[in-house]
């Protein structure tokens, strides 16, 4: 996302080089706004008296916050002629996020910043240098980049001194966030905000005195968003516990499926046994012991239609004796 820019300002400098007065001009906006994780462009363009005939080196530099004392965080060079080798600027990337979006051959030094971060906020200065020492210029006022971001809690931790009785919440955001505390029994809790001089302006530190039986909530908010953290932190299931639960569930499911299959097969076998039992009956028959005496016995006779179980003489008399196998 490219954000709207303020109207550019015109900077002019006069340089003497043994010839009539030479005038340089540089255009750069006073301020550019952007949002965290988005993209912004810092425009910068220039003009110089020999721009139509100049074929030498053009060196591009960008500095932040302190134009005269800090080293440039971005610098590249190229030759101002068609087909010339040695163009570093078209491929150069600083810190993986800073690119030259303009073409120095057309006097455009604009810088593109990807994945904006809160610490990118600051004042940026563009500078151009030609072959001659006197032919160089740097923006004087610079361009202020303001990065906005929703409130975000960086940490919520118990301080070791004194006696682990202090809880500190560190939040960041732009505009700077407001930090509010709540306890499980008392509701709103009065806090003490203490800023470290080494912290950037978008960082807020807030602390309270705590008691062991309470649950505390830190809330950070600004006009762009809010976030809440709880102490002690809520304990969710550990990854190992989750995997064990899934494994036990699969084992139980496999057991249920196996039981259903076993019952299904066992039921079919039981039906066959019952059907066979219905085809059997009790019938009187005679048998003799070793002494030749007759005695009455009962035997299970299978009444199923088995042609080998019994035979009938061909003359078909009603009083014929039926011979059968006795189990």
TrEMBL record:
Alphabetical list of Pfam families matching this protein: I-set, V-set
Sorted UniProt keywords: Membrane, Signal, Transmembrane, Transmembrane helix
InterPro entries assigned: Ig-like_dom, Ig-like_dom_sf, Ig-like_fold, Ig_I-set, Ig_sub, Ig_V-set, SIG15
TM annotation in the entry: 240-262
Domain Ig-like intervals: 20-146, 150-229
Signal peptide positions on this chain: 1-18
Gene3D superfamilies named among the record's database cross-references: Immunoglobulins
SUPFAM superfamilies, alphabetized: Immunoglobulin
SMART domains on file: IG (SM00409), IGv (SM00406)
Cellular compartments per GO CC: plasma membrane
GO terms classed as biological process: regulation of actin cytoskeleton organization; regulation of bone resorption; regulation of osteoclast development
Database matches in CDD domains: Ig (cd00096)
Superkingdom of this protein's organism: Eukaryota
Protein name: Sialic acid binding Ig-like lectin 15, like
